[in-house]
Amino acid sequence: MRYALPCFLLALTPASALAQCNAGELEITIEVLTDDWGNETYWQLVPYGNTCGQSPLFTGGNTGTINCNSGGTQTSPAGGYASNTTYTEGPWCLTEGAQYTIVAIDSYGDNQATYRVLTGGVVIAEFNEAGGFHLFSFTVATPAPYDMGITALTTPLYNTVGLGTYFSGTVRNFGSETITSFTLNVALNGTTEFTQDFTSVSIPSGNRYEFKVDGPWLPSAPGDVALSIWATNLNGMPDDAPANDAGTAALIVNDAVPDLVADYLSAAPTFTVVADDDEDLLVPRDLAFHPDRDRNELWVINKDVESSGGSTVRFFNPGGPDMTFLWQRDPNAWHFMSLPTAIAFGDNGNFSTAPGVFDANHNGGAPFTGITLWSSDPAIYAQNLFGPLGSHLDMLHVTPHSQGIAHDRWNTYWVVDGYNHDIVMHDFRSDHGPGNDFHGDAIIRRYAGMDIQRDPNDHIVSHCELDKRDGWLYAVDHGNQRVIRLDTRSGTVSGPGSFGPYETYVEYSQMSGHVWEEIVSEGLIEPAGIAISGNHLLVSDHANGDIVVYDMLGSFAEIGRISTGVAGIMGIEIGPDGRLWYVNATTHQLVRVDLDQNVGMQERLSAAVTAYPNPASGIIQLANTAGLDAGLPVRIIEATGRIALRTSIGAARRGIDVGHLAPGAYALVIGESATTRIIIER
User: The pTM is what?
Assistant: First the structure.
């Protein structure tokens, strides 16, 4: 592996004496910010329309050993610029209004340096792309005083009816004036739905600011939604260049997943083997559905062997009569997906996997190991197009023997660290692109004190699942035969992370004051997988093949078991239609758990009542009540079992006022059995 321990330095190479520019010219300087491999940088400034070597105005970087033909040759010669260093080159007097080109070359062909073009100390252009050779063009011009645009959106692309979504992203100040206040506007399908003022900020020219609009947005119906976000009222002034203002995204709202657990427990289910080793299942450990339901894909991750790395099997129309499958292994799975234990999809179409090895380099050195981020784009994932680091999008290195993984939002994931016995939050933030190696923008936070024990034989997993309704993370503690949960919204940063690190991040912190508790301490032999269905927590037991069901509304009492009758079960997952799926690592099978035909499955699949907003503080609304009798009773029940509120479907369609209820968890009961959990907050 081509990795090195980065040392972050900051040096500024002096520019030449200030140029005396003529009328019609502007003084231009270019800052070059090198990456972890500054010696691989070579660049030229040329007139627009020229390429490398054609009348260069300036040549910089490793001019002794790199030339115009060196881009992407996977060489790393000595000399040139230092790593992680800022150099200021110039100044030059360039013609105002004319275009010029930066020829950017990286000899290895992975990350490139960042190039910032400035006039009068104001950034007028900035470029950074992965790869070996790029032509970046800019226009010599004085920027407008007030000019701000959205440069990135991190709002979830895949959303769910009744589940809150926050609008987030990055704005950049393209103007010359420092921005100290602005207003963000959010439009859905062309109608402005949210505005938020940001005050007491300081965004100098060329700088970025990460934002989150408080919201949340609570989608009430499935379908496609066009999102647009733009900034106005810059220091109380209008934007001078509105053409670059808006960031847009196409959002998808999925229908709520029905909770079918009560039906599974009311009659003996059937077990349909959907795939086995004939479909290349090789010690499957986990499974996950792609969030784009139109793709109708189920992904299974195989343990395989350490030397080659794990693999995935993608099932199209899983369980259907026309099901097909595709087995894939990334060219560098031996490092990025070695003995994987878990897989989780994000709300942006990326997914992350947890390697179960101690040292992903397999050389007896430091445990340079942790979770990996991948694209589910078939043109990227597992394609041998991106050099020696495979197709991975990002990798972080502080969780050896990773055991379980759960998605939070965008590129943020929670991990069970089987080596340090902790739970660790990883925010990859902006991925480095396929096959590259910059990890320095990540935020990592370690939550210790839970003493989670992995399988000493490193075979049976300890999975985790995040309840996005309230932020509780549920984790299997295999070695202690229990289940715990962590309040991910609790705790504060108390210092640097206690393990490693072996590279530098924006933040790697130790947390303290976080709230966690043991919720299941008996009845499990070899717990492995975990899933949430409505108000039910499900845990698989590898020893006997049972899937144990717990009531999340009370004290997590066991309320039943779904007995598969075959040992070896690991990952479990709730599908988009509410049905339960699992993989068995011993029998090499993917299995769907089907309801008894007498329990009215089709009716249940078509009508899953959900409540939103959730958490709530005032009025809650019910979704998917069409077809229900207006007189059907609705009750809100406290954790103690006391009925706190009574109403009916007819009245509830106008909203339910819960403003007088004390904060806490409640059961919203429709009729006699259908329940959903709601959280009251103040």
Answer: 0.83
Q: How far apart are CA 470 and CA 467, in angstroms?
A: 6
**Residue 202: domain span:** 148-254
Q: How many domains does the chain have?
A: 4
44 CB contacts (<8 Å, ≥6 apart)? 52, 53, 56, 57, 58, 59, 60, 68, 102, 103
Residue 654 has pLDDT above 90, yes or no: no
| Structural domain ending residue among the three candidates 104, 139, 174 | 139
Q: What are residue 410's phi and psi, to 5 degrees?
A: 50, -120
Average pLDDT over residues 98-127: 91
Q: Are residues 173 and 311 in the same domain?
A: no
Please, what's the b/e burial string for 247-271 (b: 16 or more CB within 10 A of its CB; e: otherwise)? bebebbbbbbbbbbbbbbeeeebeb
Closest to 445 (Cα-Cα) out of 479, 495, 404: 495
Q: How far, in Å, CA of 563 to CA of 557, rounded?
A: 18
- Pair (392, 483) in one structural domain: yes
Does one domain contain both 194 and 93? no
Is the model's pLDDT at 141 over the cut of 80? yes
Q: Which residue, among 164, 267, 263, 259, has the nearest Cα to 215 in the 3D structure?
A: 164
At 346-405, the pLDDT tens digits run 999 999 999 999 999 999 888 999 999 999 999 999 999 888 889 999 999 999 999 999
> 655: closest CA among 665, 645, 664, 663?
645
